[in-house]
Amino acid sequence: MTVTSTILEQGHRQTYWSAGRRKLKAKIARAGSRLRLGLFIALAFGSLDAAAAFAQAGGASKPVSRSFNFSYVVKLDPPGDARSVHVWVPLPNTDEFQTVSQLELKAPRTVHVREDSKYGDRYAYFTVNPSRLKKPFEIRLTFHVVRYERRIDLTSSADMPGQLPKRVESFLQPDSMAPIEGGIGNLSHEQTEGLSDPLQRARKIYEYVVSTMSDRHDGGGSEDGDAVSACTGHRGDCADFDSLFIAMARAAGIPARSEIGFSFPGQQKLGSILGYHSWAEFYVNGLGWIPLDAAEEQQDGSRFGAIDANRVMFSMGRDIPVTPLPQAGPPDYLVYPYVEVDGKTYSDYPIDVFFRETGISSATPSKKPIFAESHQTSRKLLHFPS
After folding, report:
1. DSSP label of 8
2. Cα distance between residue 279 and residue 265, in whole Å
3. In this predicted model, what pLDDT tens digit does every residue of 218-272 receive, in sequence order?
4. Residue 219 DSSP SS3
5. Are strands 351-357 and 288-292 parallel, antiparallel or unpaired?
6. Burial class (CB in 10 A: 0-12, 13-18, 19+), 304
7. Whole-structure pTM value
8. How many other C-beta atoms are found inside a 10 Å radius of the C-beta of residue 347?
9. What is the rounded CA–CA span in Å between residue 261 and residue 190?
10. Is 368 exposed, middle or buried (0-12, 13-18, 19+ CB in 10 A)?
C-alpha cells in the first residue's frame, strides 16, 4: 500500500513570524507609515524578509516584483529489479529577494526536511523500496512566490580594503566543475592584469565571458556547468557561462557563487518551462553580493549588477553537501530531484514544470530567457496541476 506524505509550509512561515515579531514592531516604530506596504507583504505571504527589505529601502518606491504559482510533477519509474530508491527534493527558501509561501510537497513516503550546512539550501529526503509501490510514482511540488528585482548601485561605494568576512571566504575555493588553477587561472590573470579594483576585475571577466561564449544546446559545450569545457569550447548553456565566470573570478581573488532555479518568460502569464536557469553573484567589500546573468546579457543587456524579477531561486552553490550523502558524491547542483537507484545516479525521468502569474506584480517585461535542456518535459500542461 502506498502512503502519501504531504508537507505544508505553515510551520516554516510561523517560524519566521515568531522569530521576527519583535524586530517587526521595532521597524514599525522607526519607519511609521512608510512600512505599511512592507507589513502587508509580510502578513500576506508569511515572511518578514520582504518587509525588512522594503524598510531598508526606506519605503521610497514600490519594489519591482512578479508573483507566481509554481508547480512541478516528477514521475519516477525505476527498473523492475531495483531494490532501493533515494530521493533528495530541493525546496525554495524565502530570503530578501523572494517570498515563498503555500509550499506543498507530496511524495509516496514520509520525507525529512533538511538544510545543508554549507549554503543553507533546503531539501526534502526520502527513501523507498520500489517493489512495495505502484509504479510509476509521483513527486509533486507546488508553492507561491513573490520575486523582487535586484539592482545594485555600483557607484554607491568604493571597495573597502580589509579582510573578507569569514562567511564569504569559502567562495574563493574551487568547485569540482570550476577549477581555479591551470588554464582557467592563466586566463583570469591575463584578462585582469593591471587592474587592482575588484569591481573592475569582475567586469572585465564578465565582458570576456559574454563576448567569447555563445549559447548552444546542440551538443556543443558541456551544458553541465563545466568551466574548463566552456573555456576551451566557448559555448554552452547558462550553467557553462556562470561556471566560467565564477572560476575566473575566484582565480582573480574575487568570491563568486552560483544560484539556480527557473526563469519565467517576461511576456507570458502561464505555461510550461522546459528547463532550469542559473545566474551568478560576486562579492566586493562595501557593496556586498552583486548579481549578474551572463547568459541573458546576450539577449537583454544590462545584466551586470542587475537581474529581473522573472525567476525563482531553488538553491545556491555547487557540490551540495546533502545528508545522507549520495554514493556518487555531493550533487553538482539542486534544482530537480536528485535520485539514486541502487547507489547509482538516476536521471531518466520526465518532469513537468508549470507556472501561472497571480497578478500581484509591477514587473517590467524582458525577452525570453535561455533555458538548459538537460531534462525535457513529458508533455505540455494545459492547466495548473490540482
Report:
1. E
2. 16
3. 444 444 566 666 666 666 778 888 888 999 999 999 999 999 999 998 888 999 9
4. coil
5. unpaired
6. buried
7. 0.76
8. 11
9. 32
10. middle
DSSP annotation of 220? -
What end-to-end distance do the CA atoms of the chain give, in Å? Answer: 23
CB half-sphere exposure, 362, CA atoms < 13 A = 6
Strands (E), 169-322: 214-215, 235-236, 256-263, 270-272, 277-284, 288-292, 306-307, 311-316
Residue pointed to by grid coordinates 575566484: 250
- Residue 262 carries which side chain, given as an amino acid letter? F
Residue with cell 533546503: 122
